[in-house]
């Protein structure tokens, strides 16, 4: 499904400010893989997401979706195949537009099959159905401006918009980190449901170690631009947070230094 081959990305190469963001990173995701990603500060997690979504071009290496090289495709073109939810609830939606207008944008981006663009009543019915899945009453507020929603509501809408057209890849970039615990729990539950129901191939960066173990079927660890460990489902199922941190230390030779780490 998604294939990264020997991706490297340096910032400010050849200067005293040189930073290795990715170094020879390779990763293959099978359809419906749900992979959680943890790592130290500056390990390259966001850069990995940026290289996949087309925000950044790698210096070297290949990005493939379903066997096709996509590194020449611009970010807006890739957004047909790739859905992304950011940490900032303000990032994925347009605040001055209504919920319905925001959903229309997401709908247009992917052009959901089988529904004519002009069929307004059918479109509205679909939006209402999708919103009611979130279970937070947004289906009754379709003409409300998105800027008026709470952070949690907005992030739920961002998640819905990112997955609306069943993207081939879903990127979740610390998407619960800026929310209070109750809202983070809601978004986590919705994520699990949507990913499972739609069988989405998903990559989720998190600072929450318990979440990294509990969610998904694979866990990868990053350090200094490299993927240092790839833990399959069987091993992940019985892992504890202290074993996970011990494993990180054993392989990287140092403790996980993450100023936003949540142990669980
Ligand atoms: N635009 C940029 N210009 C210069 N250096 C950058 C840029 N973006 C990232 N870096 C550097 O690349 C390295 C990887 O950064 P990245 O943001 O991918 O790490 P991360 O794992 O997401 O970190 P964190 O968990 O702290 O957010 C870091 O050393 C960072 O300082």
Describe the 3D structure.
35% of the residues lie in helices and 23% in strands. It has 264 residues and is an alpha/beta fold. The strands form 2 sheets. Strands 6-7-8-3-9-10 form a 6-stranded mixed sheet, with helices on both faces. A 4-stranded antiparallel sheet has the order 2-1-4-5, covered by helices on one side. The chain is globular, with a radius of gyration of 19 Å. The two termini are 31 Å apart. Adenosine-5'-triphosphate binds next to strand 2 and helix 1.
What is the topological layout?
Elements: E1 2-11, E2 19-29, E3 34-39, H1 45-53, E4 60-65, E5 68-69, H2 75-78, E6 82-85, H3 99-110, H4 120-133, H5 151-163, E7 169-173, H6 181-198, E8 201-205, H7 209-214, E9 218-223, E10 226-232, H8 233-237, H9 241-252
Parallel strand pairs: 3-8, 3-9, 6-7, 7-8
Antiparallel strand pairs: 1-2, 1-4, 4-5, 9-10
Helix pairs in contact: 3-5, 5-6
The chain binds adenosine-5'-triphosphate.
């Amino acid at each position: 499904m998604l294939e990264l081959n020997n991706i490297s990305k340096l910032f400010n190469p050849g200067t005293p400010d040189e930073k290795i963001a990715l170094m020879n990173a390779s990763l293959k995701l099978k359809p419906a893989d749900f992979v959680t990603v943890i790592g130290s500060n500056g390990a390259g997690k966001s850069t990995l997401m940026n290289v996949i979504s087309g925000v950044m071009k790698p210096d070297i290496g290949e990005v493939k979706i379903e066997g096709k090289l996509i590194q020449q495709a611009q970010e807006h073109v890739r957004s047909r195949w790739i859905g992304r939810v950011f940490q900032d609830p303000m990032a994925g939606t347009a605040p001055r537009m209504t919920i319905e207008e925001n959903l229309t944008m997401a709908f247009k981006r992917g052009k959901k099959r089988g529904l004519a663009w002009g069929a307004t009543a059918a479109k509205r019915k679909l939006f209402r159905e999708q919103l009611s899945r979130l279970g937070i009453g947004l289906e009754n507020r379709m003409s409300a401006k998105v800027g008026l929603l709470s952070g949690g509501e907005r992030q739920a809408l961002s998640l819905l918009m990112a997955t609306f057209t069943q993207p081939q890849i879903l990127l979740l970039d610390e998407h619960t980190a800026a929310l209070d615990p109750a809202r983070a729990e809601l978004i986590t539950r919705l994520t699990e449901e949507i990913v499972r129901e739609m069988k989405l191939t998903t990559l989720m960066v998190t600072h929450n170690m318990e979440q990294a173990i509990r969610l998904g079927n694979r866990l990868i660890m990053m350090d200094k631009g490299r993927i240092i460990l790839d833990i399959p489902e069987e091993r992940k199922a019985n892992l504890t947070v202290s074993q996970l941190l011990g494993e990180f230390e054993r392989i990287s030779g140092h403790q996980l230094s993450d100023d936003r780490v949540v142990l669980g």
